[in-house]
Amino acid sequence: MFKGTNASAGIGIGKAAVIKEVEMVIRPDKVASVETEVQRFRGALADTVAQTTVLRDDLATKVGEKEAEIMNGHLMLLADPMLTGEIEEAIKRDSICSEYAIETTCTTYADMFASMDDELMQQRATDMRDIKTRMQQVLQGIKPVDIASLPEGSVIVAKDLTPSMTAGINPANVTGIVTELGGKTSHSAILARALEIPAVVAVSNVLDHIKDGDSIVLDGSEGVVIVNPTDIETEVYAAKRNAFLQEKKELERYIGMPTMTKDGEHIELVANIGNPDDVAKVLQYDGEGVGLFRTEFLFMDRNSMPTEEEQFEAYKKVAVGLSGKPVIIRTLDIGGDKEIPYMGLAKDENPFLGYRAIRLCLDRKEDIYRPQLRALLRASHFGQIKIMIPMITCLEEIREAKALIEEIKGELDAEGIAYNKDIQVGIMVETAAASLMADVFAKEVDFFSIGTNDLTQYTMSVDRGNEKISYLYSTFNPAVLRSIRNIITCGREAGIMVGMCGEAASDPMMIPLLLAFGLNEFSMSASAILKSRKMITEYSREELQAVADKAMSFTTAKEVEDYMKEFINQ
Prior knowledge:
The protein has 570 residues and is α/β, with parallel strands linked by helices. It has helices at 34-62, 65-78, 81-94, 98-114, 119-139, 163-167, 187-194, 231-251, 279-284, 308-321, 357-363, 365-379, 395-415, 432-436, 438-441, 452-460, 478-493, 511-517, 529-537, 541-551, 557-569, and strands at residues 2-3, 5-8, 11-19, 154-158, 174-179, 199-201, 215-219, 224-227, 268-273, 290-294, 326-330, 384-389, 425-429, 447-450, 497-500, 521-524.
C-alpha cells in the first residue's frame, strides 16, 4: 500500500497504464542561418498553438468552459510577445537551435514562477514547462503521448501529468490517476476533479513498483494506492466505490431544497468562483449565490491592466448569470508574491506581510482601485453585487476605501450612470488584527467573510506552503477556533451577516462548530455544496452547542480533531 495526497475523491479500480514521455536531448547546437531557424521556431509555435486550441475546445465540450480556461492560459503564454521575443532573440544572439533557445528562456520563466509564495504562480511554472516540452516535441517530430486512446478500465500512472496530457483524457476509459508529483491545487488535479476521475498524487517512487497491466486500486478520498490487491481488498474497495457512487446519487435530491437547520434557521450556502464561467457550476450544484469572486484572474496572463469596461462586463456577466442571487466580489488581492510585469511591483522580502491587497489598491487608487470600484458599482445595477475588501488590518483602511466608493458614487450620479445606491461593503477577516478588532470593524461594515486559510496562517505564524512546519497549520488549533468564534460573535452582536469563504467552510468536521458559533453563510467550491447542505439539514444549532463547548474545552488541535472526528462518525 502506498500513501499520497488525496487530489480527487472516489474509488478507482483497473489496470495500470504507465505513461512515460519520450526523453529529448536538448543541446546548444549552432545553426547556419538564424533567419531560417527563427522561421522554424515560428512554425513550431503555430503548430503548438493549433494543438492547444484543439485541446481547449475539446475540454470545453467534454467538461466545461471553466476547465478550458486552463488551456486558455497556455494559449496566452504562447501568444506573449515578451516570451516569444526572448526566444527569437536568443536564437539570433547566440546562433543556437530553437530547442535550446526555448529550453533556456522557458526554464528561466518557470523557475521564477516556481520560486513565488503563491499557488497560482507556481501553477504557472507547470504551464510554462508544459508548453516548453510541447514546442520542443513539435520541433523534433515527437508525437505527444496519446492518452485519449487508452483502453477502458485504465488507471493512469505517471511521474506527473501535465495539464495538456490531462486535457486529453477520455473519462469513459480512465478509472483513476496516480502520479509521483503534484498537489491538490495543481492544474492536473483540478482537471481530474472536473472530470470526476479519482486521483492520488505525490506518491513517492510509485513508478518503481508499478508496471503496465498491474491491477490497481486507489482511494482518491483517502490518498491510498494498492498495487496488485488481494481479492478481499478488491471486494472491499468495490463496495466502497458503490457506496461513494450511491451517496453521490442521493445528494442530487438536495437540489432545490432550502438549506435549513433542524430548528428552522436558514443558512446561506454559496460558492467560491474565480471567473464568470464558474457560474455554470454554481447553478449546477444549486448554490444560493457567490460568497467569493476572486477578481485576480482579470489581471493575470496579460500585458496590460484590464480596463474599467472589461471589468464591468465580467462582473455584470456574473450578476446577470445568477439572476439576483447575492454575489460577493473581492477587490484585487494581489501583491509582491504574484509576478505581474506590467504593474511594476518590486519583489517583497516577505510578500505575505508586504505591499499587497488593500495596501496596494489604496496606494494606487487612480490606475488600479478607482477603475475596479467604478466597474463594480456599474455592474451592481444588474444584480445583487456586494463589495468585499481583503487584508484589512486597521480602521483607516476601511474608512479610506468607503470614502473612495462614496466619491465614485457621486461621479456616477453626475454622469447619470445607474448603480445600486445601497450596495453593501464588507471586509474579509483574515488577519489577527482584524479578529481582535472585530467588534469595532463590525460597526463600520455591512458584512464579514472569514478567510480561514490566511487567518490560520497569520494566527499561527506558519507559512502554509512550508512542509517542515505544516504540522502547525490547522484550523482546529484552539487559537484559530477562538478567533473564528470571536469574529462571528462580534458580527452577530452588531447585526451584520458573517460568512466564511476559506477551506474550513466545507470541512465536515468544522461545519458543526461553525453552526454552533452562529455562522450565517458558508462559501465553498460548488461541488461541495450538496454534501454540506445534507449535513446542515441534519443538525439543530441548539443540539450543537454542547458539542462546541466540549470542543472548545480542549487545548490542542489534535484533541479537537479527534473529538470532532468521533462526533461525525457516530
